[in-house]
Predict the structure of precorrin-2 dehydrogenase.
Amino acid sequence: MNGYYPIMLQLRGKRCVVVGGGSVAERKVAGLLEAGADSVTVVSPALTERLERLAAAGEIGYVRKRYAEPDINGAALVIAATDDPQVNGRVAADAGRAGIWVATADDAARGDFINPAVVRRGDLMIAVSAAGASPSLAVRIKRELEEKYGPEYAGYTRRLGELRKLALEKVADESRRRDVLRMAAEEEEPFKEAGESVERWLERLLKLTER
Ligand SMILES: C[C@@]1(CC(=O)O)c2cc3[nH]c(cc4nc(cc5[nH]c(cc(n2)[C@H]1CCC(=O)O)[C@@](C)(CC(=O)O)[C@@H]5CCC(=O)O)C(CC(=O)O)=C4CCC(=O)O)c(CCC(=O)O)c3CC(=O)O
Ligand SMILES: NC(=O)C1=CN([C@@H]2O[C@H](COP(=O)(O)OP(=O)(O)OC[C@H]3O[C@@H](n4cnc5c(N)ncnc54)[C@H](O)[C@@H]3O)[C@@H](O)[C@H]2O)C=CC1
């Protein structure tokens, strides 16, 4: 069994380098951009059409050549996604020596992290991993979760965030505040009340927690 520690990384302002420009690299780049990474550079002699477009639009940096060690200078995160296991191995070794977090698309054992399958609904993020045993299982479970947690959860999560901010300001009693916030996250029909202002929502929940 593989042990992994799940964390949510803030990538804003961090240099991310993807080595390789094929279909796997394209998926990894898309994931980095969705996560808000603002400094993504691809190193590869060739790019997919979509990566070409992203490079032309300035959304990603592009170094048109085969990988060499200096390409990962100053990186915080590196993903090796070429179709050449030897190149991926060199990237992993170079990054390892430089103390840079690295993942390899062809052999998880050589890297420091792996990418889970992800459902994003605004600030709500659900990540599924089988630690490399079966990417297809992670994808299947992601699809099931997409059905259960639809696009409406983006707005619901945003409102919960606003409610929590307001409660932190207005409800001094810690245990009552915790009750209110737990109830808000468990409301049976959270979307029925979507027209309700956050202030009214808080009032209603406070009434429900009155002894
Ligand atoms: C270890 C890991 C390392 C990493 O890449 O991070 C890894 C490794 C490998 N994947 C392989 C194959 C496939 N990968 C996918 C898809 C995804 N793979 C992803 C993650 C991971 N893949 C990490 C572990 C995830 C975990 O378990 O937690 C996802 C979830 C996220 C992402 O890539 O961002 C993304 C779905 C995105 C989405 O749809 O949401 C599909 C299905 C498809 O393409 O539809 C197939 C074919 C079917 C199959 O094999 O099941 C191969 C064999 C290659 C070969 O045959 O040569 C290896 C190499 C190996 O196993 O050593
Ligand atoms: N982790 C995952 O989710 C998956 C991983 N894989 C693995 O990922 C590998 C790559 O798959 P694809 O993207 O489909 O292959 P691909 O053939 O579409 O792309 C390979 C890319 O690597 C580039 N490349 C080759 N040598 C290079 C070098 N020396 N320096 C920089 N770039 C170089 C090529 O120009 C090309 O852009 C596969 O060989 C497989 O082992 C495959 C499927 C899923």
